[in-house]
Structures are given as structure tokens and as C-alpha cells.
Amino acid sequence: MKIYVLYKGGFGKRLLGHLTNERDFCTACGDACTNCRDVPELDYSSDIMGLHTFAAGLPEFIDDVGEYLPASIPEHDVTVAINLHPDIITALPSYLSKITRAIIAPVEVPTWVSPGLRGQLESECAKHGLEFASPKPFCDMEGEGVIHEFMEHFKIGRPVFEITKEGDVISGVRVLQSHPCGCAYFVAQKLIGESCEDIDALNEVISGAHHSYPCTASMHKDVELDDTILHYAGYITRKAVHDALGIVQ
After folding, report:
1. How close are the terminal C-alpha atoms of the chain, in Å?
2. Given 154, 175, 204, which residue is the final one in a domain?
3. pLDDT tens, 182-195?
4. CATH of the domain at 234
């Protein structure tokens, strides 16, 4: 599974830092760091065929997107397009149709991909025989086909934990699938030693860990979710922990 990443801004760097297991990628635990990410399996550097960054301040309207896209992009399986100019991202299905099999355009901020633009991208990708996903937020990603292969290979999408307990106390947490930003590994560390007896108290621990990582999703209200994307990401994280513990609420 090979990917190419086109991005603008800090979230793209966060994704790449997670996928390459960049040294000191996560410093959230400070002096209490247990080096939980110090495992070779977290480094997917060889599967990233390339990346291209876009500067801020692009024109409001772009007639020739070729002026801003790389002249040459190697063949790959999945293109990840993060926070791109609407005219640029709209052109991607046609521009990449011969060299990719799927386009993922995550939404961490409501303005990244509007509902109307998402529908347009879906149609364009279908016309060119490409799979398409636009999860809001990225940690809500689910899919079939190439998108599923992407999730399985890089172990990212909706977080999945495996939790062991001693009595009512969490004694171990294994990350089976992480948020694309890497948050699951931090949450896992913060859960160890916590009691499952008081669900409200446990939820506070989960929420605190998710916010402290910190989650990079927007605090602006999203019209589709009728909530902020950050809050929705928090609900996803809490459900993942509950599922691992067998908690039904």
C-alpha cells in the first residue's frame, strides 16, 4: 500500500509524524514518557511515495491548478488530500485518475470540504473510477475496497483498543487501530491504572486525555454534526474505549 500526501497546515504534518513515527513525535507525557511508540512497526516511511505542501495565501480563484500541483507524481494507491484549495481538490480526480486508486479528503475543520464540495468530489471520483472518502473527522473513517486496505495497512481510522483488567482496574491497553493523528497511543497510556467502576469518572479520564493530546479538530460548530468536530472526535474516542471494555450506554 503506497500513498501520496498533499496538504496545507499543521494537521498534514501531524499525520506524517504519526505515519513515520517521527522521533519525539508525541511529547504529551513529558517526563513520564514510557516510549510507547518505540516500535518499528509504526514507521511507514517506505510506503509514502511523496508529499507536496501548499502555502497559505493562494488566490481566491485558480484557473490553472497545474501551476500549483507537482509536475510529476509517482503511481500510488491512495492520495490523501488535506486542507486544499477548493479549485485544487476539485481537479484531483481528473489530474490523478491514471496514477491513484482512491482519494481521501478528511475534514478536521468545517471549511476544508463543504457538503456541496464533497458531493462534487464523489461524482468526479466515480466518473474516473476512483474510490473516495471524506471522513469528518479523520478518526471517523470507515470504508471498503482500497480505503479498507489503507486502514488495515496503516492501522488508522476509527480507534480500536484491546484492554485488559485486574478486577475493575485497567492493567493494560493495546492500540489495534489509532486515530490518524496518533492520539490513541496517548489515550492508552492515560487509561492504565484507572478504575472502570465509575463510568462517569472514566469518561472524564478519556475526555481529558483526548483534549490533552491535543486533538487538532475544530471547535467551530459544524452544520452537519450540529456540534463541533472536536467534540465528535471525543465521542468517537470514548466509544472506542467503551467497546473495548464491553460497556453499553
Report:
1. 37
2. 154
3. 999 999 999 999 99
4. 3.30.390
Q: Are residues 177 and 240 in the same domain?
A: yes
Q: What pLDDT shows up at residue 56?
A: 86
Whole domain around residue 179: which residue ranges? 160-245
The rounded distance, in Å, linking the Cα atoms of 122 and 127 is 9
Question: Does residue 116 sit in the same domain as residue 216?
Answer: no
CATH of the domain at 147: 3.40.50
User: For 39-52, what is the mean pLDDT?
Assistant: 93
Mean pLDDT, the chain, integer: 94
Q: Residue 12: beta bridge partners?
A: none
Residue 130 is placed in which grid cell? Answer: 476512483
Note the pLDDT tens digit of each residue in 17-26: 999 998 778 8
C-alpha pair distances (Å), 224 with each of 66, 85, 109: 32, 21, 12
Q: How do 48-53 and 3-7 pair as beta strands?
A: parallel
Q: What is the pLDDT of residue 248?
A: 84
- Answer left, alpha or beta for residue 190, where phi above 0 means left and psi between -120 and 50 means alpha: alpha
Alpha-carbon torsion 14, 18, 20, 21, what sign? positive
Backbone angles phi, psi at 138, to 5 degrees: -60, -30
94/8 same-domain check: yes
